[in-house]
Recover the amino acids of this structure.
């Protein structure tokens, strides 16, 4: 996209918007194939107004891409369960590899295949089909495994172990499994899973403003009534992915809710379908049940926008002290420093304040190198830099600041607000 139309904010916005729209269409298609038109349209509209989906799909394009890949896997798995042919199972393996290429935790869908074989209670001679899917998937991602092995000596390398081998933020990033167990004990993973699940549902409640209770109630109802999910493979893959994000949420609650966000619309679709079944069975006793069912459907759509002043506010508090007065002061400082169409650089610790001013924010991260700094100034010419006091002791952030200054720019400290430092960047 950037090669054809150039690097700009507008092109970036167009890209993430287009991906989100395709994701919504994928949600509609999967739900329509399994549950019909009513469930599909309700799930798609509910996803389009979900604060959780809007937040991540407007910031990071990979969320929508991952959701599209998950939708394709679910769609193919529904077909594969009804068709015991090698070809469709090979396609399932290819689609699973696409999920992994978008994000490594997609490999949990592979692990769902053995669990699927148990759930399906197939005869042994039929187990060759899911094994074929796993084999094809592994062959498809073999180039990535080779890349990891050549560069890191480990085909399954994930940067900093994805934070999974940390008992707390004080632990080093690259502990081995043996070191991790020695520091934290054998029971720690189970404790982290429990505490992480609490963090996950806390964040889910924040993003969805409690409205997730509606489809989850339908999910529980459907499970008790043994209404089939999309496929048994999807049951296993989704469940393993859910356990993974709950564990991740122990240290990184933002990551847990983010990584499961692409799965949630399909989970909600199942819940909405069961609620519609329940209301249909109740309302059929009344003369005007179709009118009542239509009214209920409309109600599901208008609930999220019943209080838009709260539902759509882009407030992601990082600390309790970041109240509205604090956010207002933050915006005022930026207005004094920047021109109307200017933008600013900020460390990843400032992500929670990115929506509290009308100015564009370009994030710098402690894991990035400095090679992109020159391009940032050529394309966007930021007028300010915001760091935290903790950032000033980070070696990588220091290197980025030094690169900015070596390019001829002057950085002056203009203001401070709690632990945030506001610098004006003066171009040569």
């Amino acid at each position: 996209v950037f090669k054809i139309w150039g690097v700009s904010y507008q092109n970036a916005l167009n890209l993430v918007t287009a991906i989100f729209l395709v994701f919504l269409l994928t949600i509609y298609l999967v739900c329509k194939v399994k549950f019909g038109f009513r469930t599909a349209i309700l799930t798609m509209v509910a996803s389009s107004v979900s604060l959780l989906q809007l937040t991540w799909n407007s910031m990071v394009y990979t969320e929508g891409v991952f959701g599209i890949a998950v939708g394709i896997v679910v769609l193919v798995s529904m077909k594969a369960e009804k068709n015991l042919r090698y070809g469709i199972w090979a396609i399932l393996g290819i689609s699973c590899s696409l999920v992994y290429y978008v994000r490594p935790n997609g490999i949990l869908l592979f692990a769902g295949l053995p669990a699927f074989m148990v759930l399906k209670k197939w005869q042994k001679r039929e187990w060759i089909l899911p094994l074929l899917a796993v084999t094809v998937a592994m062959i498809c991602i073999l180039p990535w495994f080779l890349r990891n092995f050549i560069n890191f000596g480990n085909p399954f390398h994930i940067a900093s172990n994805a934070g999974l081998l940390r008992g707390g933020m004080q632990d080093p990033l690259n502990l081995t499994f043996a070191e991790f167990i020695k520091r934290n004990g054998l029971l720690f993973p189970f404790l982290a899973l429990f505490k992480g699940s609490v963090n996950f549902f806390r964040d889910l409640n924040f993003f969805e403003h409690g409205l997730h209770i509606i489809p989850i109630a339908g999910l529980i109802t459907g499970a008790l009534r043994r209404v089939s999910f999309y496929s048994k493979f999807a049951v296993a893959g989704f469940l393993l992915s859910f356990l993974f994000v709950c564990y991740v949420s122990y240290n990184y609650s933002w990551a847990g809710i983010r990584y499961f966000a692409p799965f949630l619309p399909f989970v909600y679709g199942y819940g909405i379908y069961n609620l519609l079944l329940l209301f249909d069975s109740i309302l059929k006793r009344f003369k005007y049940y179709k009118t009542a069912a239509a009214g209920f459907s409309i109600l599901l759509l208008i609930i999220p926008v019943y209080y838009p002043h709260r539902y759509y506010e882009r407030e992601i508090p990082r600390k309790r002290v970041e109240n509205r007065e604090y956010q207002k002061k933050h915006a005022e400082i930026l207005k004094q420093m920047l021109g109307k169409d200017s933008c600013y650089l900020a460390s990843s610790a400032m992500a929670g304040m990115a929506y509290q001013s009308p100015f564009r924010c370009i994030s710098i991260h402690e894991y990035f190198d400095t090679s992109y700094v020159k391009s940032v100034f050529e394309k966007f010419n930021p007028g300010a830099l915001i760091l935290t006091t903790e950032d000033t002791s980070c070696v990588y952030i220091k290197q980025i600041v030094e690169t900015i200054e070596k390019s001829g720019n002057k950085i002056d400290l203009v203001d401070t607000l709690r632990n945030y430092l506001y610098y004006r960047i003066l171009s040569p």
Observations:
- Residues 307-322 have pLDDT under 50 and may be disordered.
- The longest strand covers residues 410-417.
- The radius of gyration is 24 Å.
- The chain is about 60% helix and 5% strand.
